[in-house]
Structure formats: structure tokens, C-alpha cells
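Re: weekly structure request thread

Next one in the queue (423 aa):
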Amino acid sequence: MQTRVLGLIPSPFTVLENAGGMETASSQSSSHADRFRRRGVWCLMGLGLAVPLSTALSSAVLPLAALAAWLMAGGVFRLPALVRSSPVAWSALMLFLWLGVSVLYSSADWGSAVGSLNKYRDLLFIPVFMVLLSKARDRRKVHLALIAGLVASMIVSYAQWFGWLPLNRGFPAPSSTITHSTFMVWLFFCLLWEVRVSGYSWLCYSGAALAVLNILFLGSTTGYVLILAMGVLFAWQERGSQRIIPLLAAFVCLVAAGWFLIPEFKGELSQNIHEANTLDASKAGTGGLDKRVAFLSYTAEIVSEALLLGHGMGSFEGEYSQAVSGSGHPPTTNPHNEFMLTWAQAGVVGLGLLMSLLHAAWRTSALQSAPVNYMGRGFILIFTVGCLFNSFLLDTKEGILFALALALYCPESKAGKLKKTSS
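Done, posted below.
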């Protein structure tokens, strides 16, 4: 009996051998996951380069390649822990989940509702990108790739303006004027803070100045509002700094020069002032300001009919067509306001989840060291202000940039509390 019992007890050497085998297997699994995670980082570097230049690469090819790398790296198993530790990832998934629920009671047909939900798929990429960019050095690489892509798109825009390349639908921009001007505002803000990291002060300042001039000759009111907002934010973040006075003086000089030397800038501002003075929301106008006021007015009526839950995903176009029927105002597919669009389709619940996502991103960015925390809050401000005049989360390039930026500047935090910052 004693022999049998002893035979059932493994020797110390057997235990050590088994433990060593388990450790080797675990190490191989970790190496396998890290290899695919690095491939995902390369995909996101390509995405940073492609977002300002190529819709096909940035909307489908590279995000799906990154998703495949995330799956092969075992990102699914990291998802529960990420959702528990990251309010940004949690809020993004909850918003998409609620939008999916709103498909079930949508007044639109099933195909339109699902198609509309598909346009918000970028929310699902937020946790995917966060897992792939879990290391600070990888986030830095993707950030630099994004800056390189923005600089490349600015060069293309200048080449179009000088007549060296053909115009894009009549405008000197590789994307729409709203999209490109938004990208240039982000480039301007990033380069001002990049001085703190790279030290290439004159190169960064020159690039920022060129980005401002690029915005001015695009003739985009959205760009003008965003550059003003980012100028105010930067001045607040850098209050007390020795460089703030000369930078503000240079900014004012650039805008003043643009007023006298760039007809697109002067013409757009003059038109907006004229429209504001002659605004009549009851009449169908042809100007951008007239249309946006009408969009908001009729969307408010749609919202009032279903305050809590909204009319469901994909319902806006049909509901708006009914609202403007017989008024002389043209129909539209979205009200050029992301908050009103979300409220009209997903109700106050959806609007609250969207605001919760932006709030979580704003607070999470405070956990990062300077200047990444300033960049994070700068992007959230750009996106929030832009959503007042456009449907950025719905739009292709702005939506995927939103997902990438949250992973870059608002990554998963293991800290228990948000640190206090001067911003």
C-alpha cells in the first residue's frame, strides 16, 4: 500500500519539468500575441498616413487589417479587462450597443436602419486600437505617422492651389473642404505642442503657419471656427509661458494677412456676415448658415416627437422629409449636427451616452504626461465643436480619426484616480 501511495506522488524533478513546460508554452503564447500586436501597430501607422489621403484605405482596408491582427493577438481575451479599466472603451461600446438597440424600433426599413448603424462601426474600433496601442512607444510611432499623413495632405492641397495638381471637385483639398480644414486645424495644434517633444521649433512653427494659411484659402467656415477655438485653448493651456505672446502675435498677423491677400477667406467671412444679418429661418435660403438654421429648426421638431428613445437608427431622412414637406426647404440625410442627429434617432439616452464618451475621453486624457494630455483635450475640443456644425462621427474620415485619436491620447489607464493638471 505504501509503495502504491508513493508511486502516485510525483517527484520534485517531475514537478519542475512540468512547470518549465508550462512556462515555455506561456512564453511562446505571449511571443505569438506580441508578434501579431506589432503587426497591428504597423497597420495603424499606415492608417495614420492614409486617413488624410485615402478613403478606401482608411475606411476599410487598414482598419480591418488591424482588426485581424487584434484577433490573432488574442485581443478578445483582453476586452473584459479593458472595459473594466477604461471608461472610454466602456462608453464607446455602450453607445454602439444602444444604437444597435434603436434599430429594433426604427421607423425606417430594416436595410436603412442597419446601414445607418454600420456607419458608426468606428466606435467598435476604439477598444481594438486601444489594445494594439497599449505601449507608449507604439502610440508615439502612430502619432508621428498621423502627422506625416497630415503634412502630406497639406502639400497636396498647396500643389492644387498653385495649379500643379488638379482640383478635387473644384477645391484645393484631397478631401472635402470641411474634412481637410479640420485635419489642418489638428496639424496646427499638434505641431505647436510637438516643439516640446522633438525640439525642432522652427520646423514645427513653420508647419503650423502653413497649416493656418491652408485653412484660410480653403474657404471653410468650420475650419475658421475650429482654428479660433484651438487658438483660445492653446493660449489657455500655455498661459504664463514665454512663447505665448509671440505666437499669438504671429497668429493675428497671419489672419490679418489672409484677410487682405486671400480672397477665399475674405469672401467666406463676408458672406457669413451677410447671411447672419439677413437670416430668416422661415424662408428657404441658399447659404450655408440659412440651411444649418433650418436643419436645426426642423430637427428640433423631430426630436420633440420622441424625446426619450428617438425614432431609431436610419429614420432621420424619412422623418425630416415629412417635416419639411410643403415648406420649400430641401430634404437632407443629416442635420449637420452630430448631437441633434443622435438625439433624433437614439433619443436622450443615445445623446447622454455620446456626451458620456466625450466626457470620459476628456478626463482620461488628463492621465497622460504633457504634452500628450494637452493634445488629447485639444482633439476632444475639435471633435466636440465640429459636431455642432457637422456629423463627424457619422462621416467616414472624421469617424475613423476619432477612433484612432482616442486610442492615441486617451489610452487604457491603470491609475485609480485622475491626476490634477493645469489644463
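Residues 59 and 396 are 6 Å apart (CA to CA). The first helix runs from residue 2 to 8.
Next request, please.
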